[in-house]
Each structure stands twice: as structure tokens, then as C-alpha cells.
Amino acid sequence: MPEFKIQHVTKYSYDSLVRDSANSIILYPIADIYQEVLKHELDITGHPQIDTYVDYYGNEVGSFTYSEPHNLLVINSILSVSTHPRPLPVDDAPSVTQWDELFNIKYIVPYIDFLKQEYFEGLSELTPIVNTVRQSNDTPYQTALKFTEYVYKNFEYIKGVTTVETTLDEIWQLKAGVCQDFAHILMVMLRLVGIPARYVSGYICPNRDGMRGEGATHAWAEAYLPGYGWLGLDPTNNCIANENHIRLAVGRNFSDCSPVKGVYKGSAKHILTVSVSVGYEDESPLPHPDEVFAATTFPVVEKPTQPRNSYERYMEIIQQQQQQQQ
User: 324-325 and 229-234 as β-strands: parallel, antiparallel, unpaired?
Assistant: First the structure.
């Protein structure tokens, strides 16, 4: 029953005053029998009131407006979580019975959303691969594990080669990307054979042996399996998502799980800073945000001059698309 502490800080600095910064945040961890939220603090500049609601996919979403003129906005999320191992599927029901059950739920809410494919020209190339990887007598569980392994082995993990706006076809051509790209390709494969699949955003915590993407924001997929429910699959690490994976939100794709969205009034140029620290509860205290910001601050520009990880790029895109009203 490991306990983890996570600090996720987003900082906006403006070169002149702005106002009426309205934001939507999905920084609230999912709470269930496998993930116990021990403590969660949100500290936001100006201490605005945060109104929360639960969206269509069951995610807790916060919204707030910082109305006073300001040249700095910091969203600081500090989280302590205890996780419990999730039992693996028994998978003893006949394969044909399980596939029949999946066929029978394909027009039932909420599975419809998680079976709908996004536009992807590469489907004509991926479909025969899917049919080759999957054997005729494989159960949905066995199929999901094989697809996870395929993505892990056939896509190269390279930070900075994609952004959240990179299309599925571009990822398919690159055969490279980061966790969110691996998750999106895996979901395409699962949906092709009728297995509902959803996107998961969160964090991956150190497991002493090292994992891709640990100590940062992370993404993976969940597959719906008959007689079991939703099983997390991490194609970035070719493993089942379990007690080292902290879940924040689920949805059809990345856009449903965006951690921060917002608009503001003003024409000021700004600098965006994002930092995430993840560790075990019994380790040294998390660093002060200012200590991390010194190494991660960067200006928001149209053409980045150096590679950045996909989460930083996402935050950059969000800021570029904000409505700046006089």
C-alpha cells in the first residue's frame, strides 16, 4: 500500500497587468477503493473561490475567476495518495462468450463513446496488423495485452517530437512519441476489435526500478473487459497500470482530460512555467515551487527554439489560443 506525494505547479507571468482570468482545472485525483486521497491542497493566486462539478465522464472539474488586475497567476496542487493493488482479470470465461458480450454492449451508453474511432487515414494499414497480432481464440484480455506490447515494441519513446495537436496519422508515420501518443494508438487498436477504450491522465510514480515517464504527468489507456471492468494498460512501459499509476481523469482522448484551460483579458506577453514533482511519502520534502521554476521557465512563442516535453507544449498551445480581450 504505497503512499505518494505529488506537487503539480502551473505559473503564468505577464509583463503587464491582466484581469478576469477564468480557468477550468482537472487536477482532482479520482477517489475509489484502489486510490485513496489522503490530502489535497489547491493554492491559487488571489485565493479565488473554486466551484466544482462532475463532468459527463465522472471527472471532478474546478472553475475559478481571478478578477483583480495581476501580473502573476500560480496554480499549486499538492497531493498525497495511497494506492492499493488491483486484482488482475481471472479470464476463465470462454473467449466466444466474452466477445459476444462486447458485441452486445456496443450500442449502450457509455460504451458508445469509447468505441467511436477518431478520423485516421492509417486505419487501412493498421487493420491488417491488428488482425495479425490478435489470434482467433484470444480473449479480450489477451488481445489487449498483445496490443499493448505491440505499441511498446514498435513505437519509439522520444520526448518533444509531438504535441497534443499531433494527429494520429502523424504519430503513425513517425512511429514515435510520448505517453499520450502511445495511449491514442493503443485505443485505436482496441476499438478496432470492439473493445471499449478510454484515455487516462495522471502521474506515474517511481517504482525503484525506473519507468518511462515517471516523476511527471503521464497518460495511458483503459480497456473494458467483460466480467472485470476497466483495466489500465500502459503501452509506454508495456505493463498493466496498477498501484504506481495515479489517475486524475478519464475521457475519450486527451482533450477530455486537459489539466488547465482558461481565458483572460489583456494584451500582455506572458511566460509559462510548469513543474511536477513526484515521490514517496517517506522521502524528503517536495521542493519549493521557486526552486523548480528556475529550471523550467520558458517564454511562450509561436515557434519553439528547443524541444520541450508534450505537457509543456500543451500548456504553451493553450496559452496561445486564449482569447485576449481589451
Answer: unpaired
